[in-house]
């Protein structure tokens, strides 16, 4: 992945995760290694990568995100709202209200429930296989 215009758009957690993975892999292939050139940047990249590895974004793909974005087109959400839905994966109407501005005016209760269903459909842990059951409870 290559950053074409660093100020052109916001990135989802999945995109940041992929970008940092690519950056770290480039360093191990003999190219200019972050650790040698910019120690602080290397530490930030490492810490961010370790954090994102523990989040659901590690199982997201550009295809999954694209399908989700297509499925929510009819709701007329802003780019920021779509990004928050992808990153935060809300599961309750209250969370949805916190993400979508003026959701009470813009969306019906049925539409909010449909959005929650779409988030669960496209980003569910069961589909991605992120959590294993340990003694009948979700594992970490």
What is the number of helices? 9
The structure class reads mainly alpha
Strand content: under 5%
Which word captures the global form? elongated
* Spatial order of strands in the largest sheet: 1-2
Average pLDDT rating: 79
Radius of gyration: 18 Å
Order of helices and strands: HHHHHHHHHEE
Low-confidence stretches: 128-140
Q: Report helical residue fraction.
A: 55-70%
Q: What distance separates the N and C termini?
A: 29 Å
Most strands sheet: 2 strands, antiparallel
Number of strand segments: 2
Helices and strands, with pairings:
Elements: H1 13-28, H2 34-37, H3 39-53, H4 62-71, H5 79-88, H6 93-99, H7 103-106, H8 109-123, H9 125-128, E1 133-134, E2 137-138
Antiparallel strand pairs: 1-2
Textual characterization of the structure:
It is built from 9 helices and 2 strands; from the N terminus they run αααααααααββ. By secondary structure, it is mainly α. A hairpin with a 2-residue loop joins strand 1 and strand 2. The radius of gyration is 18 Å and the shape is elongated. The protein starts with 12 loop residues before the first helix and ends with a strand. Residues 128-140 have low confidence and may be disordered.
């Amino acid at each position: 992945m290559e950053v074409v215009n660093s100020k052109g758009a916001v990135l989802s957690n999945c995109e940041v995760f992929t970008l940092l993975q690519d950056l770290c892999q480039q360093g191990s292939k003999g190219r200019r290694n972050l650790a040698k050139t910019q120690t602080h940047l290397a530490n930030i990249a490492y810490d961010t990568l370790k954090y994102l590895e523990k989040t659901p974004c590690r199982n997201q793909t550009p295809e999954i995100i694209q399908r989700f974005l297509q499925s929510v087109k009819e709701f007329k959400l802003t780019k920021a709202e779509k990004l928050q839905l992808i990153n935060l994966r809300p599961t309750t109407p209250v969370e949805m209200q916190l993400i979508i501005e003026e959701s009470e005016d813009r969306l019906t209760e049925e539409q909010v429930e449909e959005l929650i269903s779409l988030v669960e459909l496209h980003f569910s842990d069961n589909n991605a296989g992120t959590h294993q059951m340990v003694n009948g409870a979700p594992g970490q």
